[in-house]
Amino acid sequence: MMKLALALLSISLIFACTPEKKAPAPDKGAHATAPGPNGGKVVEVGAHLAHLEILHDEKAGTITIYVFDKDIKTPMALAKAPEIKLSTMEGPVVLPTKAVDDKNLSFTVTHDALKAHGPEGRISLELGGKPYNPALPHMDNH
């Protein structure tokens, strides 16, 4: 019985003297919170490889995507137009975008599913031959 009491006391002292580990502070630089150059929501692609600025016109059912380098200032061309993959009440919807200009710096798509408030989904694109699927940011147009 005495051995059990000593064992329990030893275990209690070990846990009591072990320093409490604090959770790491969240990385505040991981997600841009300031509006992009055109006033849209900014989404990081990869580890600051690129940024997408997303503008949503709920009334028109349009999303426009501007592509920027890691500095969120320099426009960046994509070799292939991104797709928007939405989750809707009717099921998944894949919306191919079209380049706004001949330099592939911005892309747009119009669809009735985009007339919803705060569409949920992902943007599918390639950078340097690698696929990325960042989430659409929450669109609060009100």
Describe what this molecule looks like in 3D.
This protein has 142 residues and is mainly beta. It is 11% helix and 35% strand. It contains 1 helix and 9 strands. The protein has one helix spanning 2-17; strands at 41-45, 50-57, 62-68, 83-88, 91-96, 98-99, 106-110, 120-127, 130-132. A 5-stranded antiparallel β-sheet has the order 1-2-3-7-6, with no helix packed on it. It is globular, with a radius of gyration of 23 Å. The termini are far apart.
Instruction: Measure the end-to-end span.
Output: 69 Å
Count every beta strand, where a strand is a DSSP E run of 2 or more residues: 9
Q: Order of strands across the biggest sheet?
A: 1-2-3-7-6
Low-confidence stretches: 18-31
Report helical residue fraction: 10-25%
What number is the mean pLDDT? 81
Here the CATH topology equals: Immunoglobulin-like
Q: Quick one: CATH class?
A: Mainly Beta
Domain count, please report it.
1
Instruction: State the helix count.
Output: 1
Largest sheet geometry: 5 strands, antiparallel
Secondary structural class = mainly beta
Entry keywords:
Immunoglobulin-like, single chain, four-stranded antiparallel sheet, mainly beta, 142 residues
In short:
The protein has 142 residues and is mostly beta strands. 11% of the residues lie in helices and 35% in strands. The chain has one helix at residues 2-17, and strands at 41-45, 50-57, 62-68, 83-88, 91-96, 98-99, 106-110, 120-127, 130-132.
Draw up the topology in text.
Blueprint: H1 2-17, E1 41-45, E2 50-57, E3 62-68, E4 83-88, E5 91-96, E6 98-99, E7 106-110, E8 120-127, E9 130-132
